[in-house]
Amino acid sequence: MSKGPAWLKNAIFYEIYPQSFMDSNDDGIGDIQGIISKLDYIKELGCNAIWINPCFESPFGDAGYDVSDYCKVAPRYGTNDDLKELFSIAHKKGLHILLDLVPGHTSLEHPWFKESMKAEKNLYTDRYVWTDSVWEEVSGMGNLRGMSDRDGSCAVNFFTHQPALNYGFYKCQRPWQQSPDSPGPSATLNAMIDVMRFWLKMGCDGFRVDMAGSLVKHDEEGKGTIALWKKVRAVLDKEFPDAAMVSEWGEADKSLQAGFHMDFLLHFGNSHYTDLFRSEKPYFSSKANGSAYEFVNTYIRNYEKSERKGLMCIPSGNHDMGRLAAFLNPAELKVAFAFLLSMPGAPFIYYGDEIGMRYVTGLTSKEGGYARTGSRTPMQWDSSVNAGFSKAKAEDLYLPQDSSEDRPTVQAQRADPNSLWNEVHSLIECRKACQALQPYSDIEFLQAEYPLVYRRKSPEGKSVLVIINASNSKRSFEAAEGKTLHITGGKVIYSNGLYILDPSTALFVEEN
User: DSSP H helical segments within 159-250, as ranges?
Assistant: First the structure.
């Protein structure tokens, strides 16, 4: 892992799904100029970095995760000049921008794939994972067959319109399987490095990398993929040493070895992230019948495996998850954010989660969203037409919005001192002001039941005790009295050596 840019030391990210954030030209779809118009909002909330979901040219069979041109902004979002302007204006405001890189696959419409389908050998023949006979499939993966005169089956990573790019096989077991150092896989990697160069030269601050841990095939221990990303990091360290990299990997020890600065706790896999927020019995539900034990145990294990280097990041949600508000009520959401904004790593806030936007049920799938579609609806800014997202006709919006009369908006919540928005804002300000709550400060869990208790400690020796009572009854914890930095929710009493917290209440205490 490289040292990383200085701005990561206090980074708080805001994730933008571009088609749903802000529409500047009233065509019903969010765009880059819309994002530019809301940079001051993001900064006011307290975030200082932004992750933008894919905004490249695409047929949008998977909401832009099926790229047809890695070096061109999708026309519906604007132009490359618009994106360059976004980088420039964001930097002037002290904000940093990560783009979403999709190195694992392309769309069927990408020129690389069209060349790769040809029967005659060419520069792109080995750009994708092909068998050497149409009658043989790539085992363990989806396959495309009979699409062209080329004799072979092509592996797909996700949907059938997303052919898998070829980075080689760690264990080659068939004649058509190539090692990562073979000419074809090497050319694929170099092409992706060129894509990164293109945007970094334009002003991008780095990338969130989709499916980062799955590029090399037959690589159960991740050794081949780690070696691949180390090559990328060596190039970046030489040419763009401040380029920040966050991986969708879910195994921080491997990700950080590979040269990433940050890795996500994912809602799939074994992080037990869903135990906290998105299960039948979420720990942060005030019904008080959830458990944080497995999450804490897994977190500690990964924390130690990664040698406490780099950042394990916990998102409030993302474009692939159900909305946080679908599982927790407003009081519970505040306590959940007290947790999210006091943990190590860089917090990621999914657009709209800061106001408790709801999952919209009953929607027809859009651009491959399926069950995820209800978490991708347009941002709710104010009480004007289409909640301020767009002046287009309602039927022309990218997706229907929450039609409830009491749907949350930024305008209403900013005006309400007791709102979720104001609580998130206050928590961010507290985090920024406290060394012990910064991304790289240590954590020690003291209790994994109700209340959840942990200590954050800065390299300078400053420590903060975090006590979170997510239950529906008063809970206590024995500790020396310190300086109260922040209270979320109800009342806190200190008596006879005990902190006693009301239900749905969190406390940050600076220890003496």
Answer: 183-202, 223-239
Backbone φ and ψ of 369, nearest 5°: -75, -40
Q: Are 334 and 379 in contact (CB under 8 A)?
A: no
Whole-angstrom distance, CA of residue 124 vs CA of residue 381:
46
Helix (H, G, I), strand (E, B) or coil at 477: strand
User: Model confidence over 293-352: pLDDT tens digits?
Assistant: 999 999 999 999 888 888 999 999 999 999 999 999 999 999 999 999 999 999 999 999
pTM attached to this predicted model: 0.97
Bridge-based pairing of strands 498-501 and 475-478 is antiparallel
Q: What share of the chain is helix, strand, coil (3-state, %, to 5)?
A: 30, 20, 50
Detail the DSSP E strand segments found in 41-160. Answer: 49-52, 56-57, 69-73, 96-101, 142-145, 153-156
Distances (CA, A) of 268 to 223, 237, 249, 250: 21, 31, 10, 8
> Which SS3 state, helix, strand or coil, does residue 389 take?
coil
* Residue 56, φ and ψ in degrees, nearest 5: -90, 165
Pairing of strands 311-313, 348-350: unpaired
Q: Report d(CA 314, CA 291) in Å as an integer.
A: 17
d(CA 493, CA 512): 18
Coil/strand/helix, residue 413: helix
